[in-house]
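BUG: 3D viewer hangs when loading the predicted structure for this chain

Environment: internal workstation, default settings.
Expected: structure renders.
Actual: progress bar stalls at 90%.

Input used:
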Amino acid sequence: MLEVENVNSFYGKAHVLRDLTLSVPHGNVVALLGRNGAGKTTTMKSIMQLVRPASGSILFNGNSIANLPPHKIAKLGVGYVPEERRIFTDLTVSENLLVGKQPPREGAVTWTEAMLFDLFPNLAERRSNRGKALSGGEQQMLTIARTLMGNPSFILLDEPSEGVAPVIVEQMAKVIQQLKSEGLTVLLSEQNLHFAQAVADLAVIIESGAQVYSGTLKELNAQPEIRDAYLAA
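Structure tokens produced before the viewer hung:
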């Protein structure tokens, strides 16, 4: 569904992604793993063209999305949940969801507020609360829910478990499993290997902006030397 091939991205003169190649098959959850600073967030931003790659190709459903503005990529069915959350803190939970609402999209689930409140019971209890009154984990849930209101077929999740309480991390895992059962394809950026193992089918490890491993989580578990080399603190 998504093919990233030989992508090079820079921040100024800093070469962050180096001939990065990865594939996300339709209907799968792929975990993009690596230490802090490995290039995971830059990968997400390069896919969304928030960072414009200097070279390489990015295909979504067989069509190039290189050089498209982010809003057009979103209209193709790509949802992006940034690490920074970026909710509207002065709007209520329900109002935040309304901001993200888009028309139905062929081949994708049409999400409603009621469906999302079933998926995120914490948000249902706080539907009238302003965003700034939510905990960090609840804000992360709201960011995901607002993205789903755009009815994406593919979703980029950047570090959804970072900085949230363990009980929320457990709920996040259940949400991602539910999204997969609904037919969504997910690229998940993570440092938390345990969380990735709970939700992902495949893993890609990057180090210094280059791919150093691609395979199943089962295969990765059988190679502790790779985990120790690229994922250990």
